[in-house]
Design goal:
The chain is an alpha+beta fold. The protein has 11 helices and 8 strands. The chain has a single domain, classed as q2cbj1_9rhob like domain (Jelly Rolls, Sandwich). Strands 1-6-3-8-2 form a 5-stranded antiparallel sheet. A 3-stranded antiparallel sheet has the order 5-4-7, with no helix packed on it. About 35% of the residues are buried.
Length: about 325
């Protein structure tokens, strides 16, 4: 895995063939809209519960107890960690020191990458052609992503799971993928503001660009781990969002890392360890897909792809016991 620093462009390979879905699946049905409405209501309840839990965990006594439990769990699982492939040492060390690592996704040498990229490119084109509504970060419905199982299955590659488990240090949970479009309206809202994720002690994400991201195109931005610690101290940061003005008051924008890169660039990041955000795009929309993993004992609930029975059946038929252990429990 050949890493590149932020602000450097990356040459990408030629995508492979995509697996076509029936054209009728492109239209969002009434049931899909109902599913989206239910998912939105559920997300509101989850956010409310997470806020209560987050405030509880900020209490000094609770933090001490949970910290002790976490480190005890790390020690107990250390002897059960799978072997780490030597080719994965550079990104592993980059995540432990810097908090992020960027490289062309093809250099990760994961099986199924060509098929996954072709499917993502097809869906990004579909999202590009979809009329905009009030949202400035529209997504495709989950059922549409699962019309391309090669996307979801890419995140269950065994070597990738072993790498992530070594980094997280505990048994891991795979949460699937989220393909979205960041509309170039310059608005500073939601994850376009600086924040540190509070889902877990350590978290692993792969943000995969699906178009060239140039200045003004909404690049992923972050502060290295050491700088995040110092900045959080100066901001008296506990949780929530930080505005540009608040961040600039303690750290000049010249020290904000931005990941400018070609399409099909993968950015690995531990978003629980670094200040980060999707910079508000001004001159061009940004298309990307984000794959996410936490430990199985995450501090707070994390949104997980709601899989249909058909999708579950496909996944179970194409995975082994080790991979199935990373799937979210069925409700």
């Amino acid at each position: 895995m050949a890493g590149l620093s932020a602000r450097r462009s990356i040459v990408y390979g030629e995508p492979g063939r995509s697996l076509r879905a029936d054209e009728s699946t492109i239209r969002v049905s009434h049931s899909a809209r109902m599913q989206k409405s239910k998912a939105t209501k559920a997300a509101v309840l989850v956010r409310a519960a997470n806020k209560v839990k987050r405030e509880l965990y900020r209490l000094p006594a609770v933090r001490v107890v949970r910290g002790y439990e976490y480190h005890r769990a790390l020690e107990a699982h250390a002897l059960r960690l799978p072997p780490l492939d030597p080719v994965d040492l550079p990104p592993y060390h980059a995540l432990r020191t810097e908090g992020a690592y960027m490289a062309p996704v093809e250099t990760l040498r994961l099986p199924g990458t060509r098929e996954m990229l072709a499917a993502c490119d097809e869906l990004a084109a579909e999202l590009r052609a979809t009329p905009l509504d009030v949202e400035n970060a529209p997504r495709l419905p989950i059922h549409r992503l699962m019309d391309f199982p090669e996307i979801y299955m890419w995140g269950l590659d065994r070597r990738l799971l072993e790498f992530i488990e070594n980094y997280v240090g505990l048994p891991i949970r795979y949460h699937g993928a989220d393909l979205r479009r960041e509309v170039a309206d310059g608005k500073l809202n939601d994850v376009r503001q600086w924040h540190i994720d509070a889902e877990d002690w350590r978290m692993f994400k792969i943000i995969l660009y699906l178009n060239d991201v140039l200045p003004g195109g909404g690049p992923f931005q972050y502060l290295p781990r050491a700088l995040t610690i110092e900045t959080a101290r100066r901001l008296h940061y506990g949780s929530g969002f930080v505005t540009d003005d608040e961040m600039a008051a303690v750290l000049p924008p010249s020290r904000w890392n931005e990941c400018l890169a070609k399409s099909h660039t993968a950015i690995m990041a531990d978003t629980c360890k670094v200040f980060h955000r999707a910079q508000p795009p001004r001159t061009a929309d940004r298309y990307s897909i984000t794959f996410s993993w936490t430990s199985t004992t995450a501090v707070k609930a994390y949104p997980t792809m709601a899989l249909t029975e058909q999708a579950v059946a496909y996944i179970l038929a194409h995975t082994d016991e080790r991979q199935r252990a990373c799937l979210p429990p069925r409700s």
